[in-house]
Amino acid sequence: MKLTDDKLAADDFICKFSDFMRKTLQQSDSITNTLEEELAYVENYLQLQKVRFNNAFTFEIKTPKQVNLKMLVPKHVVFTYVENAVKHGLSHKKNGLLTINIKKKKKGTLLTIEDNGGGINTKNQNKRNSTGNGLLIMEKIYTYYTQLTKQKIKHHLSEVTDSENKVTGLKIEIEISK
Known about the structure:
By secondary structure, the protein is α+β, with helices and mostly antiparallel strands.
């Protein structure tokens, strides 16, 4: 779908954008979301970005039934990494893919965000409109969240490589303890 295709497509885009802005404002004073709310927010954002970038990428969100979608998580725990993936990896790529995988573990929940956007040091990264502080801010949020809830949060970024050791994407794993 392109923004210029037809009035129905434009109306759909405006409705999604309106919903996204409404949820952003409603949640502006909260430090937590349910995992379900976080994933819905992220999905809405990704649908908007797909239109913006002319369907240059696809995405999938996998949440097995045993995952507690009502659990509280720090606000933007998934969104921040997804926004970075779109902005720095997928916005200039054809056939981009972003996957979000949620798994229940013995001692908590594992959130994995993976893209095929080219990794951390991509030459084409979009530096415009970027402060470069998103990940540092998330580290501070995790520290405060742990102090408030006693739930530990660990995160790890790693580049994804192919069989020839060529960087093909980025993987972020966030583990939230019970």
